[in-house]
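User: I'm putting together a small comparison set for a docking exercise, and I want a reference complex before I start. The sequence is below, and the ligand is adenosine-5'-diphosphate. Could you produce the 3D structure with the ligand included, as structure tokens?
Assistant: Of course. I'll restate your input first, then give the structure tokens for the complex.
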Amino acid sequence: MTTRTSNTTGTASLQVESLQKTYGSGPDAVRAIADLSFAARTGELLCIVGPSGAGKTTLLKCISGLLAPTGGVVRIAGRKVTGPPEGLGIVFQEYGRSLFPWLTVEKNVELPLREKGVTRAVRRRLVTESLDAVGLGDSRDAHPWQLSGGMQQRVAIARAVAYEPQVLVMDEPFAAVDAQTRADLEDLVRSLWSRLGVTVLFVTHDIDEAVYLGERVLVLSRRPTVLMEDVAIDLPIERDQVTTRSDARFAALRTHVYELIRATQQASPDASAADASARG
Ligand code: ADP
């Protein structure tokens, strides 16, 4: 794991340019993403929020090369994404299904490194460093089913971090854990991000979580999706669950994002009308 001291060096590690995605064709076509453009600079922590059905999963599938866009392009470290990109690490919401139950914690973290062709000595170092970084240095010989949900999600995070991705994508990763664990994991993400300087794209439907974590929050409209606003989160770099969340600036930012999302939920025309107009 490379430790970097400065964030946001100015180059874009993730670029989404005029991305469009329509599912199907003809009268049954569903226009999910109308037109979306944004970039994340190297070492930036970007959150994406939007109402349910806003196209967040569609966007992530296009970024991770699992789904071909209808229009536009995604680039990671300047390279156009046409399939699962090498420089991308993903942490999914369903940690229970993303870990192999028959492998130990250590082997789960090591597996993608083997597939990447990393030598044994380097694998050992990366596994040790990443498990220590998420506070699981003592659980390397355990199996996932012996761990709590929060610990399992730490394993998934360690596995993604050990891979040394250029961009770490997290898809609603804490939706299934209790509130205290969620707060701890949020702080873990902030601390890993500031220590490693990795670019993080964190998708959530939780407005408070987005504002607490992000340096920027991209607010998506209901579908067909466009970017409603790119909100700069001008809170201090050092954040704390109690102090930050009781800060007046935090309250103002969360209210602003909340109002944007409420406006898009109440907006008309509805998506089916938009589909019809897109089809002409
Ligand atoms: P979110 O993750 O923000 O909840 P999604 O990306 O899952 O939103 O979905 C965006 C829209 O695209 C929704 O209206 C959804 O019903 C539609 N959609 C998603 N996947 C498909 C698919 N495979 N076929 C048709 N419509 C889809």
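Confidence is low (pLDDT under 50) at residues 4-9. Residues 23-24, 30, 32, 50, 52-58, 223 surround adenosine-5'-diphosphate (CB under 6 Å).
User: Thanks, that's exactly what I needed.
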